[in-house]
Amino acid sequence: MRRLRRVGKVATAIAASFALFAVSFTVTQACVGKGTPPFGLTAGKGFTITSTISSSSSTQTAALFYPGVERYLWLTVTNPLTVPITVNSLSITGVTSPRGCPASSNLSFNSSIFSGSLPVGANGGTNTVEEPISLLDTSGNQDACESQSFVFTYAGTARYTDATSTVLASLLNPSKQGQSVTFTATVTAANVASDPSLPSGSVNFYRCPTAACTVTSLLGTATLSAAGQATFATTNLPAGTDYVEAVYSASSTNFLGSTSNVVTQVVKPVIVATSTVLTSSPNPSVYGQSVTLAATVSASSGATPTGSVSFYLGTPAGPNTLLGTATLSSGKASLSTTTLPVGSGSLYAVYAGTMTDAGSTSATITQTVDKATTKTALSSSVNPSVSGKSVTFTATVTVQSPGAGTPTGTVTFTVTPKGGGSVSCQLGNTVSLVNGVATCTVPTALVASGSPYTVNAVYSGDGNFATSAGSLCGKQTVKTAVTP
Prior knowledge:
Layout: H1 8-21, E1 42-43, E2 46-54, E3 70-79, E4 85-96, H2 103-106, E5 107-108, E6 113-120, E7 125-135, E8 151-160, E9 164-171, E10 175-176, E11 181-189, E12 202-208, E13 217-223, E14 229-234, E15 240-248, E16 258-259, E17 263-268, E18 274-281, E19 285-286, E20 291-299, E21 308-314, E22 320-327, E23 332-337, E24 343-351, E25 360-361, E26 365-370, E27 374-380, E28 385-386, E29 391-399, E30 410-416, E31 430-432, E32 437-442, E33 453-459, E34 468-476, E35 478-479
Parallel strand pairs: 1-2, 10-17, 19-26, 28-35
Antiparallel strand pairs: 2-3, 3-7, 4-6, 4-8, 5-7, 9-11, 11-14, 12-13, 12-15, 15-16, 15-17, 18-20, 20-23, 21-22, 21-24, 24-25, 24-26, 27-29, 29-32, 30-31, 30-33, 33-34
């Protein structure tokens, strides 16, 4: 058997074939490129691979194949791109051997498989990896292999990493509630002029309650097109100001994810006409009585109106006074009031409306409020009394249900002895009410000869309360004082 001698020509031939003729490469992320025809990341298009034979696994020491001696195949990856790449695997997939020197019986290259992570920096960065390879020590004559080249074909996987930016736009803006709004996210690589492909994958579209977008709710997802755009259309945006952002999720391993600008989407409501009807109960009422005002709001179409109703005393043209506000429930709102003035007054209700329902004002209705009835109760401080001693008569005026309040005005007292004439109160017979009470003090005028006395008290009434009277008819008696 004749062994191969260490002739430099063999090494030169092998290195040349590696560098110039024997490299092919594939990638796991095949993307549509910017040129025509489309291309992906391949050796020679984005980076290069060169190879040498070394006798060392730690340094590149040039050597020739020698039968039965393990050599090392050093592979050097050079990256001219402006983005880093990572080679994940390299292996010999085929060998073109010299005639008469079949590779299957002369070469051992099954161990020449790299699987791992071989990162390569940008802008001319390089990295190397060494794998064992050897020429077999066969029993046959290997003269045909001497000074010849073995041409190797490689395959493997690689990826690169580039930043992206995402720009979001909407069509139409402003829109009307229920209209279709299309959001378009355009994802661009930071080094688009250098990258062998464009970003791929999907974009998520989110709606935010504020422009800060710290809280989001997913609207939908769309896939990037070959032009790097993803579109999503929706008719479900609520009326008002909506904030929308897009997030590229970087499902392509060659690109980093990115978040778009926030689009302020104005959605104008579709306004529905409404009508408001007002009723009151009871009508007529009396002063101080609770009167319930009820408003029913109806929409010309769509859902039952929501919101609030305000109730007014007076007319829309004025003057008017706000009585109170109530919230609609199933299209109805009510308010109870005890402050309606005596007389015939106008009432109306105003529905404030919402973003989707127009406001409306009811027709005015007339509420009749009568004076509340009263009762005057009369009492004596002492009965029977003693001649020559003062007596105080007290009139208490109260409001009769369903009225309420405290009467004001005056009470006129009449003190009539038996047989005729009259006796005056100490401060006059007409006395003003204080908290519904008036008093008449007769100091010394009551005498036994005039007994029994008839005492009457008449309440004059006021703007809110009707008159009433009380009497001690012949019930006040006077005894003659006993002289010691």
